[in-house]
From TrEMBL:
<comment type="similarity">
    <text>Belongs to the class-I pyridoxal-phosphate-dependent aminotransferase family.</text>
</comment>
<feature type="domain" description="Aminotransferase class I/classII large">
    <location>
        <begin position="32"/>
        <end position="380"/>
    </location>
</feature>
<dbReference type="GO" id="GO:0030170">
    <property type="term" value="F:pyridoxal phosphate binding"/>
</dbReference>
<protein>
    <recommendedName>
        <fullName>Aminotransferase</fullName>
        <ecNumber>2.6.1.-</ecNumber>
    </recommendedName>
</protein>
<dbReference type="GO" id="GO:0008483">
    <property type="term" value="F:transaminase activity"/>
</dbReference>
<dbReference type="InterPro" id="IPR004839">
    <property type="entry name" value="Aminotransferase_I/II_large"/>
</dbReference>
<dbReference type="InterPro" id="IPR015422">
    <property type="entry name" value="PyrdxlP-dep_Trfase_small"/>
</dbReference>
<dbReference type="InterPro" id="IPR004838">
    <property type="entry name" value="NHTrfase_class1_PyrdxlP-BS"/>
</dbReference>
<keyword id="KW-0808">Transferase</keyword>
<dbReference type="Pfam" id="PF00155">
    <property type="entry name" value="Aminotran_1_2"/>
</dbReference>
<keyword id="KW-0032">Aminotransferase</keyword>
<dbReference type="InterPro" id="IPR015421">
    <property type="entry name" value="PyrdxlP-dep_Trfase_major"/>
</dbReference>
<dbReference type="InterPro" id="IPR015424">
    <property type="entry name" value="PyrdxlP-dep_Trfase"/>
</dbReference>
Length: 387
């Protein structure tokens, strides 16, 4: 075996995702296929995004494309946005610009966790396990509530051991679309504080917030940073801009982390990002960050697409979790077999994501980033296979 153990473990952890992703290559160039799998764009990019990139790709100095770490204007724009949204006094120097949320999570894990430490992750949830395995960390899954997919604080508490170093919270949550309330997050903070006291070792909370600005029906947002001081916040602009191929994100240290510890973390960010392979966004993306802070996809249109699918599929008998945020629709597969269901849909030219990639073989996920026409064309096949 030529592979390192960590490479093999990461490969095994993400195998359901890579296998499905590779299977989609057969769809390339097929105009009649309805692709509702990943949160990719199916319409032309936002004009404001294109304008920002066009403006900032034009060099204004000889060092315009020189090596860049976190640029001050980008940090200042992020900190101002966080202060406005979360009501906490985030400082620019506590913001590390990263290559999307992927990059931010990679930095966060190595900032506070050592090889062999355990990281509690939600289930069903995003694909944290491969990143943890690649960092020689141990994923420990904590199920969300079975009926509503809300944050299950008791399940998190049961998952914590003396080796726990990080707990991950993703709200609004992928794939379920749930937004966790302040009361539940406050309970979680109390659990983490008590567990940290018992073990004599601080447990950190990583708040994964790439969908923070995509919420429906006037639902508010509470960041765990408001409820537990020892919180790191990661964010990606790729979701709200619907441009996941343009890598821009950040990791922010909560201003509620005590000053001494925050200064220590802050000082480690630059060398850690350099050590991880110069993990900073490209210069043009950082130059564009201040302008992109206020740019967003049409959330009202997303809500209309959500309502279309929830109404039509609910009437057909599907058991759905109505999303409060994100751009996904999560449902129970007819017959309880996601592989059989998604395979039958694929034979009808409609492709959705099977819950097997989230370790939930009885569910499926639809991406609402498809066009309205694509969603309408998917409905006959979905109705045909309804429970």
């Amino acid at each position: 075996m030529s592979l390192s153990r960590r490479a093999q473990a990461a490969q095994e952890a993400i195998e359901p995702v890579t296998s499905f992703f590779l299977s989609l290559r057969a769809l390339d160039g097929q105009p009649d296929v309805v692709d509702l799998t990943f949160g990719d764009p199916h319409e032309m990019p936002l004009p404001a995004l294109v304008d920002a990139l066009r403006t900032n790709v034009e060099p204004r100095s000889a060092d315009w494309f020189a090596y860049k770490s976190s640029l001050a204007p980008a940090q200042e724009a992020v900190a101002a946005g966080l202060r406005a949204e979360l009501g906490l006094p985030f400082a620019p120097e506590d913001v590390a610009m990263t290559q999307g949320a992927f990059g931010a999570i990679a930095v966060a894990l190595r900032l506070v966790a050592d090889a062999g430490d355990e990281v509690v992750v939600p289930e069903p949830g995003w694909f944290y396990a491969p990143m943890l395995r690649a960092a020689d960390l141990v994923p420990v899954r904590a199920s969300l509530t079975e009926d509503t997919f809300d944050l299950d604080v008791e399940a998190v508490a049961r998952a914590i051991t003396p080796r726990t170093r990080v707990v991950v919270v993703n709200s609004p949550a992928n794939p379920t679309g749930r937004v966790y309330g302040r009361d539940r997050l406050t309970e979680l903070g109390e659990v983490l504080e008590a567990a940290s006291a018992r073990s004599g070792r601080r447990i950190w909370l990583l708040s994964d917030e790439p969908y923070r600005r995509i919420r429906f029906d006037g639902i508010g947002f509470t960041s765990p940073a408001e409820c537990y001081p020892w919180t790191l916040v990661d964010y990606s602009y790729g979701k709200v801009l619907l441009a996941p191929g343009q890598r821009l994100g950040y990791l922010a240290l909560s201003p509620r982390v005590p000053d001494t510890e925050r200064a220590e973390l802050r000082a480690a960010l630059l060398p850690l990002q350099m050590g991880l392979g110069w993990g900073f966004p490209d210069a043009v993306m950082q130059y564009s960050a201040p302008a992109l802070e206020t740019v967003s996809i049409d959330v009202a249109e997303l809500a209309r697409r959500r309502d279309l699918m929830v109404g039509a599929l609910g009437a057909a008998g599907y058991d759905l979790t109505v999303p409060e945020g994100t751009f996904y629709l999560w449902g129970a597969a007819p017959g309880g077999d996601a592989a059989a269901f998604t395979g039958a849909l694929a034979r009808r030219g409609v492709h959705v994501l099977p819950g097997t990639v989230f370790a939930r073989p009885g569910h499926f996920r639809i991406s609402l980033t498809a066009t309205g026409d694509m969603l309408e064309r998917a409905l006959p096949a979905l109705r045909e296979l309804a429970p």
